[in-house]
Amino acid sequence: MNILILNVGSSSVKYEVFENDISIIKGLIERITGKKGFSKAILKITSILREKRISIDAIGHRVVHGGAIGKTSRITPSLIKIIEQVTDLAPLHNTPELHTIRECMKIFSIPQFAVFDTAFHSSMPDKAFTYALPHGLSAKFRIKRYGFHGTSHEYVVQEACKKLRKDIKKQRIISCHLGNGCSITAIKNGRSIDTSMGFTPLEGLVMGTRCGDIDPGIITYLMRKGFSTEKLDSILNHQSGLLGISGVSNDFRDVLKSKDPRAKLAIDVFVYRLIKYIGAYHAVLGGTDILIFTGGIGENSPKITKLIFNQVRHLKIKNKIVIKTDEAKMMARKIMNLL
Question: Pick the catalytic residue: 21, 57, 117, 260?
């Protein structure tokens, strides 16, 4: 069985075909602009598959925000409407993803599925996803902790338990996805019980250009100083994090190499925030059996992972492991299970 996995960004489409659990072809189409660009990208992918004589039996679409949808779902007109309703919560992602879904529905007559980044975190208890805001306000505007990177966290947790020969349903796990975007998740008995990203991917850890946790009073303070919502959005999402503190780069490798004192401060803040979250989730879980690192930084910065391991030694976590994430493979597995 061949499954085509599509991962659509704001200006790119990653594609990969899995034959059962084995990747047989993958590629990336970049610098896409407008709806017509995404339509052309899909046509190009179908042409490539035809040239290589690769037939596909199903398609999986990565969808960043699924709202209240808690599982991988077959795409139908009613599901598309549900995704449309939460598009304003992740417009840069859900808008091109929806367009690609509609385009594929026109071209292909095979089963298609949506795999949601938020789905893995739908198991969080009320006390973890509820913000201390007026109930009516939260209900009206669907304000809650949704969490992201769910497919990555789910994959590395399964792989870690396989490698360590542990029963996932008996483990207390902290999973750290560290890249340009960063999140940390507490997993108990195979289920997410808390995660650092919240209503949007802006909350939580220090990231490449995102600020992570800040006092919300800073936002209202700057608004009173004349900053527009558009300017604040740009500052918090695109000018903060490692880039904002260091003034050097949003790329962890560049910041790590720099001799600038601000770069060192950026690394210190990054590590300190992560250790705080590990400690908090260790407490929430009642102890930790496995600590996982993944993502571009987590997989390729042994100096940092070693530093963090040393600083949480007192927690006596027996199993510390680095796992290479593979969201596309996880998506393919989910779809195969449904088929």
Answer: 117
